[in-house]
Amino acid sequence: MARWAPEETDTMAAIAAEVIAQVGTNRTVIGIDGQDGTDLEHVAATLVAGFEQHGVSAMAATSPSTDPDTLRDEVVAPFRTTGAGDGVLVVHGHGLLAPGVRGLWRWSLWVEQEVGRLERRADVKIAASAVLDVTDPEHPRREWNDAC
Question: For 20-63, how does the pLDDT look when each residue is reduced to its tens digit (9 = 90+)?
Fold first, then answer.
């Protein structure tokens, strides 16, 4: 018997709703990082679509670097200082949840897939606001990595 799983658009809209409830949308910057081999650009684009389903203006950007000063000067500060009111910027790239960089994001997402799960990076996953399993790309799953 096949199990039901939410579609990608439903999962990403639910994650967007979680962000809206937790941190709001007033010039909010989100960082997306993940295991090697994960399509972070696709995840960012679908998260942007999730925000748009809630009527929130959002856009995605590829990280130009993992240097915190570069990210702050070239990505975060320009987004926060241009425009006013609601708006979300979803920045994606490997290394965005590394120590020294993770503090730039108001909310963050770690993306992983079944391949290599034994090599999970617990330090990075703990730093993430949420974890997304994209083993089945059409039905990604929000993982609950609480320590309870």
Answer: 999 999 999 999 999 988 999 999 999 999 999 999 999 999 99
Structure tokens belonging to residue 129: 């606001």
Whole-prediction pTM? 0.90
Tokens representing 37?
Answer: 């081999």
**117/82: higher pLDDT:** 82
Give dist(CA 59, CA 61) in Å, integer: 7
Q: How many domains does the chain have?
A: 1
Query: How many Cβ atoms sit within 10 Å of the Cβ of residue 79?
Result: 18
Say if 60 falls within a structural domain: yes
For residue 11, count CB atoms less than 10 angstroms from its CB and return exposed for 0-12, middle for 13-18, buried for 19 or more: buried
Nearest residue to 28 via CA among 97, 74, 81, 87 = 87
Handedness of CA 38, 39, 41, 47 (dihedral sign): negative
